[in-house]
């Protein structure tokens, strides 16, 4: 509080002085005063009180002064919207200035002032500037459209700026094209389905031409935009790749990475037996390696991306191991990333070199780095069988150093090696046991206990060792407690005579004195197992464990695919999808790699050899206990779920009689991390209801459900929040009924009754689209007066009329259904043996549909003529 | 896109703050200061996420430049932009220091307004920026219409890096081939990794809009030419021996990349003044100018004996300069005795190293240093990490073997030809990270 007061006092004096200077007659003094104001603004002082005085300086010929005033305006206009309007005239005048630099400056600054009244005035000047003769003004105006869209999206659409912006993609000046592409891409992100960019072979060709001519930054915008395109076939894909590859030699790393992104994505579509495919693979390696000689920050970005690329296509960099060797002076973030990639690239061919390096790293200073290096040695042992022996002896050497954290890390990895190669390296157990006392980290303690329990029969004093841990049982972390419990039970089964007391002790500690449910449950299970059937207990507890496989911490394939589409961006640096760190709807659209061309999928898979084999089972991270029987039961649930049965069941737009439709699976569990959504629509007592059935097919509990609709043809929107109050447990199902209103934003969809829905829970945001029966939009007051009907029927022009044949329908059932669906019969007459029924329907958005139903006696086929008219 | 850019001094005080996007508030400035600049531990990543806001930073001496955003921006572009921003500032007012930034803050705001629009990088070529943004204020009010349109067409044009109408009395070209040779060698003298990263830096003072073509002894080009039916027997045999294999190269944006991709010819319209034409990397057949042979012997617990021999490995007629060998010593060193045959050697306690400097050394020579290091007894269990012995030097040749074959200049509109241009070529090889483990 005191500091705030102090600052205020300082400012009060300053502001008084500045006010006087700003109103001075001398130009130089004025300029100096504005400079001081900007300087105060920079350090965070509030100088908004000077607003009128500063704005008064705006009408000047001095461009420098003008720019300073603009800078001030951009900062404070929002807090003083009424006074900001004073500036409008000058802006409008400047937009007409003969000097293009001033025109551009005015339109650029105006777009940064987020005051509604000003944006109104901005439209006309902006329209002119978008068509200005000078490219500098046009390129500035293009970005301004994006600014305006950020303030008032509706205004931009209403004013037709989007079309003008689209035209700029064909502009003769490459920089204008690049900025237009950047602006459109940004706007398109907030309208996922608007097809704003409308990428087609012609527009792609224009972009590729501009790519050769524009600035480095422009090239990035264009390449990032190209990456969103999906080529029609492999030939188109190849021709784009051919035109993008020269970018790999650009000096700007961002251009290179964006080009790599386009190539990685489009490569998916190329058949793998194509010569060009191999050529392309070869071309990718050198530029990636070159990125490593850039500045360290860029190296970091590059390495994070290479990590993804190596997982997706290991063949690209498999011969480049050496460039990832750590240099002594690399910043720590570069070192850690390099190490990660080294392990991924380790193979039988290069393992000797890698091991020698890792051993070197294990003696470095940085603790994190050393730990990771030790862990890497263990991973090499598991990955490359031939090297296991050398790895183990290296690890033993490191244990001899007695550096505490090195020893602990080594023990953790040795445990994994035991699991991978049982009955091979147990001779080292004695050495490990020597270090028992120095272990203070839970993970290392748990690993050591596991080893003792697993090999209890070979360790003479196993009971003593385990007993020593038991003393401080309650102070241990859960991980260690669980492991200790299991280890002692194993020991008991192996040496029942001497250890009866010990096992009693641990079981009572676990079941009676602990309040951890996991521990208690496990304790009880062991207890019952041991007391009922010791033979069965032996079979279960000492069962042979499945071997662990080599790859750990691989990124899940769907996420990897998405991240590949985001190469170069923050998502690829964080290894997280954009939705995890970007707020709001912007940029959360999930990207996918294109599938290979439909003509030759078999060839591709067969020839590539990289077709997914059995998914590698992943070493469970700490917390899950390795190989213990209880965990085996908890294998991932069958996520297969019912296959989505969308084919043939789509509700047609013209299914006027649609009533109780069966519910459809809208979102299969596979696509939504275990959440399955099915549902249907209904109209009850004048309220439209969306009936949702949510099923949790994942392992974890789901909470925090929310729902949102994209804009749609009839303005459907949830009328309240999604009522899922209790968390949804695994394998639970909940039925929710969501009332809908029709007052939301409107956008025409194709098909008309398509609805795009986003459902959010604590795990992620999921998207799906469904179609609703049009009949649920028919309102109850859709009965038209006879006279009005007659007059309206005549008014409707013929081209608004259409005819349908309905087959196999029976009058009785029809009239019932019609009544129920708010289709009202106004009149009925008989002409030449045909029954003519006249009916009216009113839609929720005020559109009337008038229909004439012609029924021939004895013929089950009816003819419907209907016309529409918009009320209001 | 980029939401804002802040510049801080070493204390974390804001020197420049420019916000481009509405989603970035004033608190972002403080968040970075508190979480990164004032953080106790070493910087673990150049990208930091604080409360769903991402910060990218680079440091120049003790100045922090940070970009902030809430969107999924192109991270590589952000860093490239920050480096470019540093270059632009440096070319306007020299070193990036607190004082210079404070004295030029109006200029910096002007630049930021021009080279970033709504967070999108725009033209950032100093050549063209300097035509309308200067330290004396902005040009523009007194310009003629032609001048104005010339500026705008240059800023947005295809050749944004060069303005028209440049005239020199003497057309001159300076070409520097600057290489840094990197080595990691095992104590037994086995090369663990070695590569050369080279740069071709040009200074061109040429009139008009000249078209240039640059040629070097790149294996692929020469092989191509050979196959193309060049019947000159002698030329073939000599070029075959001298050509080098370039692993990868990148070019200044003035080079026509599509042409390089199809014909492997390097053609361009050069910027005026100094610029980097290309960067390249080679890993094969590198001439390692020096070889370091270390011998470390632990005598008991309190003494180390170190002997290091360096051998120069190039033509005896050439001279290497600024040779410096850095031999790390343990942290518990109490005293050092050094004997060297050539140059001067000193133990620098503050750097934990013995620094041995030799001014000049000819090729095919050998020199040696031996040192006795006294150690204080410690009870530290951790062994000394033995950092590698590093070396610095400068040699007057290109360790990769790269040779400039030609640089041709064509300017059809003005009446000077390739022969009238005075060209200078210089090769400098420097040590990059040149380390030998001991």
From TrEMBL, chain A:
The protein's name in its UniProt record: AP complex subunit beta
Record-annotated Beta-adaptin appendage C-terminal subdomain domain positions: 778-871
Transport in keyword set: yes
Topological relation to the membrane, as annotated: Peripheral membrane protein
An annotated Gene Ontology molecular function: clathrin binding
Alphabetical UniProt keywords: Acetylation, Membrane, Protein transport, Transport
InterPro entries named in the record: AP_beta (IPR026739), AP_complex_bsu_1_2_4 (IPR016342), ARM-like (IPR011989), ARM-type_fold (IPR016024), Armadillo (IPR000225), B-adaptin_app_sub_C (IPR015151), Clathrin/coatomer_adapt-like_N (IPR002553), Clathrin_a/b/g-adaptin_app_Ig (IPR008152)
Positions of the Clathrin adaptor alpha/beta/gamma-adaptin appendage Ig-like subdomain domain: 659-769
UniProtKB/TrEMBL annotation, chain B:
Span of the signal peptide: none
Domain of life, source organism: Eukaryota
Similarity field: Belongs to the adaptor complexes medium subunit family.
Keywords recorded for this protein, A-Z: Cell membrane, Coated pit, Endocytosis, Lipid-binding, Membrane, Protein transport, Transport
Subcellular compartments: Cell membrane; Membrane, Coated pit
Membrane topology: Peripheral membrane protein
GO molecular function, a single term: lipid binding
One GO cellular component term noted in the UniProt record for this chain: plasma membrane
Residue ranges annotated for the MHD domain, each copy included: 170-437
CDD domains, A to Z: AP-2_Mu2_Cterm, AP2_Mu_N
Family matches, as Pfam families: Adap_comp_sub, Clat_adaptor_s
One GO term (biological process): intracellular protein transport
Chain residues that bind a 1,2-diacyl-sn-glycero-3-phospho-(1D-myo-inositol-3,4,5-trisphosphate): 344, 346, 348, 357, 359
InterPro entries, alphabetized: Adaptor_comp_med_subunit (IPR050431), AP2_Mu_C_sf (IPR036168), AP2_Mu_N (IPR043532), AP_mu_sigma_su (IPR022775), Clathrin_mu (IPR001392), Clathrin_mu_CS (IPR018240), Longin-like_dom_sf (IPR011012), MHD (IPR028565)
PANTHER family: AP COMPLEX SUBUNIT MU
Major site of localization recorded for this protein: membrane
Annotated protein name in UniProt: AP-2 complex subunit mu-1
């Amino acid at each position: 509080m005191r500091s705030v007061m102090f600052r205020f006092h300082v400012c009060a004096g300053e502001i008084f002085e500045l006010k006087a200077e700003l109103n001075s007659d001398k130009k130089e003094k004025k300029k100096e005063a504005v400079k001081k104001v900007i300087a105060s603004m920079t350090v965070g002082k509030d100088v908004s009180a000077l607003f009128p005085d500063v704005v008064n300086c705006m009408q000047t010929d001095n461009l420098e002064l003008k720019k300073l005033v603009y800078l001030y305006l951009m900062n404070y206009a929002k807090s003083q919207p009424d006074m900001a309007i004073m500036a409008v005239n000058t802006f409008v005048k400047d937009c007409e200035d003969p000097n293009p630099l001033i025109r551009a400056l005015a339109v650029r600054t105006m777009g940064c002032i987020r005051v509604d009244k000003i944006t109104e005035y901005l439209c006309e000047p902006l329209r002119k500037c978008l068509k200005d003769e000078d490219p500098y003004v046009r390129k500035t105006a293009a970005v301004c459209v994006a600014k305006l869209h950020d303030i008032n999206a509706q205004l931009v659409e209403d004013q037709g700026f989007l079309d003008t912006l689209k035209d700029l993609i064909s502009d003769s000046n490459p920089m204008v094209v690049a900025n237009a592409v950047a602006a459109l891409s940004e706007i398109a992100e907030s309208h996922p389905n608007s097809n704003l960019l409308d990428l087609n072979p012609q527009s792609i060709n224009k972009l590729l031409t501009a790519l050769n001519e524009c600035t480095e930054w422009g090239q990035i915008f264009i390449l990032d935009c190209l990456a969103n395109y999906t080529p029609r076939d492999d030939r188109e894909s190849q021709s784009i790749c051919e035109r993008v590859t020269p970018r790999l030699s650009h000096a700007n790393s961002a251009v290179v990475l964006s080009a790599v992104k386009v190539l990685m994505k489009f490569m998916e579509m190329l058949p793998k037996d194509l010569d060009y495919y191999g050529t392309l693979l070869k071309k990718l390696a050198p530029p990636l390696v070159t990125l490593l000689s850039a500045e360290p920050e860029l190296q970091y970005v590059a390495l994070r991306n290479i990590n993804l690329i190596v997982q997706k296509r290991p063949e690209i960099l498999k011969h480049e191991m050496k460039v990832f060797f750590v240099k002594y002076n690399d910043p720590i973030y570069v070192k850690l990333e390099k190490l990660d990639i080294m392990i991924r690239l380790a193979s039988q061919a290069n393992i000797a070199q890698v091991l020698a390096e890792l051993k070197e790293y294990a003696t470095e200073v940085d603790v994190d780095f050393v730990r990771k290096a030790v862990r890497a040695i263990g991973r090499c042992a598991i990955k490359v069988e031939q090297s296991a022996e050398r790895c183990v002896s290296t690890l033993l050497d490191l244990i001899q150093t007695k550096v505490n954290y090195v020893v602990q890390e080594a023990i953790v990895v040795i445990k994994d090696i035991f699991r991978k190669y049982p009955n091979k390296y147990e001779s080292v157990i004695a050495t490990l046991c020597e270090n028992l006392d120095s272990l203070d980290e839970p993970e290392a303690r748990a690993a050591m206990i596991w080893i003792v329990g697993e090999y209890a029969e070979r360790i003479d004093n196993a009971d003593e060792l385990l007993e020593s841990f038991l003393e401080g049982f309650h102070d241990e972390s859960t991980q260690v407690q669980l492991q200790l419990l299991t280890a002692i039970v194993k020991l008991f089964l192996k040496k029942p005579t001497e250890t009866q007391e010990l096992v009693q002790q641990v079981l009572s500690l676990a079941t009676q004195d602990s309040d951890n449910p996991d521990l208690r449950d496990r304790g009880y299970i062991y207890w019952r197992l041991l007391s009922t059937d010791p033979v069965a207990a032996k079979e279960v507890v000492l069962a042979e464990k499945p071997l662990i496989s080599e790859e750990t911490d691989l990124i899940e394939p769907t996420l990897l695919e998405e991240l590949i589409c985001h190469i170069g961006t923050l998502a690829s640096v964080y290894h997280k999808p954009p939705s995890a760190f970007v707020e709001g709807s912007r940029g959360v659209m999930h990207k996918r790699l294109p599938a290979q061309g439909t003509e030759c999928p078999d060839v591709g898979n067969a020839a590539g050899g990289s077709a997914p084999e059995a998914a590698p089972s992943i070493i469970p991270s700490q917390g899950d206990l390795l190989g213990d029987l209880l965990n085996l039961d908890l294998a991932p649930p069958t996520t297969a779920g019912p296959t989505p049965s969308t084919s043939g069941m789509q509700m047609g737009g013209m299914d006027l009689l649609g009533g109780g439709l069966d519910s459809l699976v809208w979102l299969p569990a596979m696509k939504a991390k275990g959440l399955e959504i099915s549902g249907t629509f209904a109209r009850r007592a004048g309220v439209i209801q969306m009936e949702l059935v949510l099923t949790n097919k994942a392992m974890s509990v789901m909470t925090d459900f929310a729902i949102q609709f994209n804009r749609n043809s009839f303005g459907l929107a949830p009328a309240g929040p999604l009522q899922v109050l209790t968390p949804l447990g695994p394998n639970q199902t909940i039925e929710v009924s969501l009332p809908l209103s029709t007052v939301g934003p409107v956008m025409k969809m194709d098909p008309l009754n398509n609805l795009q829905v986003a459902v959010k829970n604590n795990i992620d945001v999921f998207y799906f689209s469904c179609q609703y029966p049009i009949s649920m939009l028919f309102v109850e007051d859709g009965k038209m007066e006879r006279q009005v009907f007659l007059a309206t029927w005549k008014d409707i022009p013929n081209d608004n009329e259409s005819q349908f044949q309905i087959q196999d329908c029976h009058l009785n059932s029809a009239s019932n259904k019609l009544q129920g669906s708010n289709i009202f019969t106004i009149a009925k007459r008989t002409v030449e043996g045909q029954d003519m029924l006249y009916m009216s329907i009113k839609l929720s958005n005020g559109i009337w549909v008038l229909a004439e139903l012609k029924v021939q006696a004895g013929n089950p086929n009816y003819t419907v003529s209907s016309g529409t008219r918009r009320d209001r | 896109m980029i939401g804002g850019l802040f510049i801080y001094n070493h204390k974390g005080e804001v020197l420049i703050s420019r916000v481009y996007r509405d989603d970035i508030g004033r608190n972002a400035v403080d968040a970075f200061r508190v979480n990164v600049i004032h953080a106790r531990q070493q910087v673990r990543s150049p990208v930091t996420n604080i409360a769903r806001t991402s910060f990218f930073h680079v440091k120049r001496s003790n100045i922090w430049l940070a970009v902030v955003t809430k969107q999924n921006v192109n991270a590589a572009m952000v860093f490239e932009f920050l480096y470019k921003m540093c270059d632009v500032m440096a070319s306007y007012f020299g070193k990036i220091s607190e004082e210079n930034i404070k004295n030029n803050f109006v200029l910096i705001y002007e630049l930021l307004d021009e080279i970033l629009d709504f967070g999108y990088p725009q033209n950032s070529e100093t050549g063209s920026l300097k035509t309308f943004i200067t330290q004396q204020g902005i040009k523009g009010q007194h310009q003629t219409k032609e001048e104005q349109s010339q500026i705008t067409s240059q800023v947005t044009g295809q050749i944004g890096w060069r303005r028209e109408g440049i005239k020199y009395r003497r057309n001159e070209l300076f070409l520097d081939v600057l290489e840094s040779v990197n080595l990691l060698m095992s104590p037994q003298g086995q090369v663990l990794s070695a590569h050369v990263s080279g740069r071709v830096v040009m200074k061109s003072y040429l009139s008009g809009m000249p078209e240039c073509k640059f040629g070097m002894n790149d294996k692929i080009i020469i092989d191509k030419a050979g196959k193309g039916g060049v019947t000159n027997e002698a030329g073939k045999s000599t070029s075959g021996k001298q050509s080098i294999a370039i692993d990868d190269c990148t070019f200044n944006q003035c080079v026509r990349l599509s042409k390089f991709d199809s014909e492997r010819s390097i053609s361009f319209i050069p910027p005026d003044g100094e610029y980097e034409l290309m960067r390249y990397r080679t890993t094969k057949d590198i001439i390692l100018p020096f070889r370091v042979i270390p011998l470390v012997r632990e005598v008991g617990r309190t003494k180390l004996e170190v002997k290091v021999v360096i051998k120069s490995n190039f033509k005896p007629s050439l001279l290497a300069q600024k040779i410096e060998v850095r031999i790390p010593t343990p942290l518990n060193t109490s005293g050092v005795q050094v004997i060297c045959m050539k140059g001067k050697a000193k133990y620098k306690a503050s750097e934990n190293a013995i620094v041995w400097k030799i001014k000049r050394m000819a090729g095919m020579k050998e020199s040696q240093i031996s040192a006795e290091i006294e150690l204080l007894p410690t009870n530290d269990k951790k062994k000394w990490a033995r950092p590698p012995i590093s070396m610095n030097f400068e040699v007057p040749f290109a360790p990769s073997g790269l040779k400039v074959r030609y640089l041709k200049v064509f300017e059809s509109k003005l009446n000077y030809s390739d022969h009238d241009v005075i060209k200078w070529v210089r090769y400098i090889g420097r040590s990059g990270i040149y380390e030998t483990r001991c």
